[in-house]
Amino acid sequence: MKNKKKILFPRLGKWLIKSFLPFYESEYFLNDLEEAYLNRVKEMGRGRVFIWLIAQLGFSIPPIIIDNIRWSLIMFKNYLKVLGRNIRRNKIYSFINIGGLAVGLAGVILIYLFIDYELSFDKYHENAEEIFFVMSKEEHPSNTNYTLGTQFPFTEAMRTDFPQLVKIAQVYFQEEVQVKVGNELYPENNIVFTEPDYLDMLDYKILTGNSKETLDAPNSIYLTEDLAKKYFGSKSPVGEIITLNNTIDMKVQGIISTPPSNSNIRFTMLGSIKSLIEDYVGFPFNDWNLTTTANTTLVMLPNGMNPVEINKGLVPFAEKYLSERDREIQTYSLLPLLDLHYDTRFQYANYTTSMDTIYTFALIGLLILAIASINFVNLSTAQAVKRAKEVGVRKVLGANRAQLIRQYLSESLNYTFVAIILALIIAGVSIGKLNDFFGNGIKLELFGNFNIIIFLVVVFFLVGLLTGIYPAMVLSRFDPARTLKTTLSSTKRRFISLRDSLVGIQFVIAQALLIAVIVIASQMDMIKNKDLGFNKESIINVSLPEPDQSKMDVLKNKLLSNHNIQGVSYSLGPPTSGAIMQTYCSFDSEGEQKREFVQAIPTDENYLNLYGIKMLAGDNYRRYVDGDTLYKYIINETMMKKMGIIDPNEAIGKPLAVSRFRGDVMGVVNDFHLRSLHEVIPPTILTNFIVSFFRTTNIKISPHNVPATLDFVESTFKDVFPGYIYDMQFYDEFLGELYEAEERIFTTIQVFTILAIIIGCLGLFGLMSFIAVQKTKEIGIRKVLGASVPNILLHLSKQFSKVIIISNLIAWPLAYYVMNKWLENFAFKIEIGVLVFIIAGAAGLLIAAVSIGFQAVKAAMANPVNSLHFE
Amino acid sequence: MSAKTVTRHEEHVLLAILNLSDNAYLVTIQEFLEKNAKTNLSFGTLYVLLKRLEKVNYIQHSIGEATSKRGGKAIKYYALTKEGYKILREAAKINETMWYNFSNISF
Question: Considering the entire predicted model, what is its pTM?
Answer without folding.
Answer: 0.72
